[in-house]
Specification:
Layout: E1 2-7, H1 11-23, E2 27-33, E3 47-48, H2 51-57, E4 62-65, H3 72-81, E5 85-88, H4 96-109, E6 113-115, H5 123-133, E7 140-150, H6 164-167, H7 171-187, E8 190-198, E9 209-216, E10 221-227, E11 229-241, E12 245-247, E13 255-258, E14 261-264, H8 273-284, H9 293-309
Parallel strand pairs: 1-2, 1-4, 2-3, 4-5, 5-6, 7-10
Antiparallel strand pairs: 7-11, 8-9, 9-10, 11-12, 13-14
């Protein structure tokens, strides 16, 4: 049995993370950290307003860090140093240096450290890998992903996402990181990044659109375009090869079209559940952690490089 402490009860935690922990047969929720104790009442477990106190008083084996991005690094490092395993929300941190410090803390602690890049665990991503490796599209040479929606917190809902101090960036961090992570998972080591970030429509301090071009050691080039100012929703993901292409659009759907036909491969109804289940298995059974801190560092490097190339703050070397 793995005992969980969850830090943060925001949108993702309440809709997906906590239900996944409560449903996972070898998990038990034993505590919550929240600035608003009334949000914890329905879970019938102890709660704290400060992580430090929770780590001292709670018998949790693992901490899920589900707070705004600026708290990911300090909370993760504190939890690891307190001897807890950590599964942290994406992106890892505000910058690559902090992400690296998180991974160093994990190595020094000997605890398990994962990042919730749950799209790696979509069954159709596994199938896409099989098709690429079998040569179904020949040699992969180009990939593209778009995530377009309309997001502006006029009613205060998730308003921290437009605060550069708390969020770090706009759609590049919010939606873009998942797609960059899939590019890395499929194509290997990224070596160069070109990017453009701007704020065209919304009166916010972070970008409302970002475009990046990533080149891989394998020779694949991948193009990402993410926007918060489109009333036309787009969720596209394609991989083109010398002999054909894979179309996974919409990325969050079961659809997969390839040269051999089309398939429908549904994800779990709670997209976070396989990530939680795999993390538990990695600790209790020695299973391979599918989205570790170490394997997520290249995604943080690409994010940092994109902001550097676009003239935003950041830094670090891969």
């Amino acid at each position: 049995m793995l005992r969980w402490l969850v830090a943060g009860i925001g949108d993702i935690a309440s809709r997906r993370v906590l239900p996944a922990i409560l449903a996972e047969r070898r998990s038990r929720l034993v505590g919550l950290v929240t600035r608003k104790p009334e949000k914890a009442e329905k879970y019938d477990v102890p709660s704290w307003t400060e992580l430090e106190n929770a780590l001292a008083d709670c018998d949790a084996d693992a901490v899920y860090v589900a707070t705004p991005v600026f708290l990911h690094a300090p909370m993760t490092i504190a939890s690891l140093r307190a001897g807890r395993h950590v599964l942290c929300e994406k992106p890892m941190a505000l910058n690559y240096e902090d992400a690296t410090l998180m991974e160093v803390a994990a190595r020094e602690s000997g605890r398990m450290f994962g990042i919730a890049y749950y799209r790696r665990m979509y069954p159709k991503i596994a199938r896409a890998k099989e098709l690429i490796e079998s040569g179904a599209i020949g040699r992969p040479v180009f990939a593209e992903a778009t995530s377009h929606n309309w997001f502006y917190p006029s009613d205060g809902y998730r308003e921290w996402l437009v605060d550069p101090i708390r969020a770090g960036a706009g759609p590049l961090f919010d939606n873009g990181c998942h797609r960059i992570d899939l590019f890395n998972d499929l194509f290997g080591t990224p070596v160069t990044v070109t990017a453009f970030l701007s704020t065209l429509v919304h009166p916010i301090e972070v970008e409302d659109n970002a475009t990046a071009l990533i080149e891989y050691e394998s020779g694949v080039r991948a193009q990402l375009d993410v926007r918060w100012h489109s009333r036309v929703l787009r969720d596209e993901f394609r991989v083109r090869g010398t002999n054909g292409e894979l179309d996974l659009s919409p990325l969050n759907s079961p659809e997969l079209v390839h040269p051999l036909g089309s398939e429908k491969i549904s994800p779990h109804e709670n997209l976070h559940f396989p990530c939680i289940e795999n993390f538990v298995g990695s600790i209790l059974d020695g299973a391979t952690l599918r989205s570790s801190g170490a394997s997520s560092l290249p995604t943080e490097w690409v994010l940092n490089q994109a902001r550097l190339r676009a003239g935003k703050s950041g830094g670090g070397k891969q």
